[in-house]
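User: Hi! I have a protein structure encoded as tokens and I'd like to know what sequence might fold into it. I'm fairly new to this, so please keep things simple.
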């Protein structure tokens, strides 16, 4: 069984017709959060000898045991233990595009890259342009040279 909760219940199997999910990881010790996304699986096309069409091979991802990709989150999980974290699914998406859009949308709405109570420090967009923020009053990433702005939320 996985540690992911959706609408108050643990998610046991991949829901029918869904591609992936947007999640929120909360550290119950210090209250820090992380917004991210995970796909339920991957698909690829492989050549089949003697055939002109390729065969679609689907493989389930490690979503049941997945605990995030952020190095900061992983370091805190190692320090405090996985039991000190809540793993919530915020949104189930039917397509890769839906999942990507909702992750980025939630990250922008929560303003998580400029807030110190979130682990997020970059937002990777669909075109792989990475938007990074400033930490400790210093701007880094592609925004270097722009005027700093105050935290809104």
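Assistant: Happy to help. Inverse folding works backwards from shape to sequence: for each of the 153 positions I chose a residue that suits the local structure. Here it is:
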């Amino acid at each position: 069984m996985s540690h992911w909760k959706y609408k108050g219940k643990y998610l046991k199997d991949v829901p029918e017709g869904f591609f992936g999910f947007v999640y929120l990881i909360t550290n119950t010790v210090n209250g820090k959060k992380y917004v991210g996304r995970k796909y339920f699986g991957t698909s690829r096309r492989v050549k089949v000898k003697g055939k002109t069409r390729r065969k679609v091979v689907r493989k389930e991802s490690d979503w049941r045991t997945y605990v995030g990709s952020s190095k900061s989150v992983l370091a805190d999980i190692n320090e405090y233990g996985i039991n000190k974290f809540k793993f919530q699914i915020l949104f189930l998406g039917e397509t890769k595009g839906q999942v990507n859009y909702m992750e980025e949308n939630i990250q922008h709405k929560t303003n998580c890259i400029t807030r110190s109570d979130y682990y997020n420090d970059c937002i990777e967009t669909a075109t792989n342009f990475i938007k990074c923020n400033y930490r400790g009053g210093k701007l880094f990433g592609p925004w270097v040279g722009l005027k700093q702005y105050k935290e809104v939320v």
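A useful reference point when you look it over: Residues 136-153 have pLDDT under 50 and may be disordered. Feel free to ask if any position seems puzzling.
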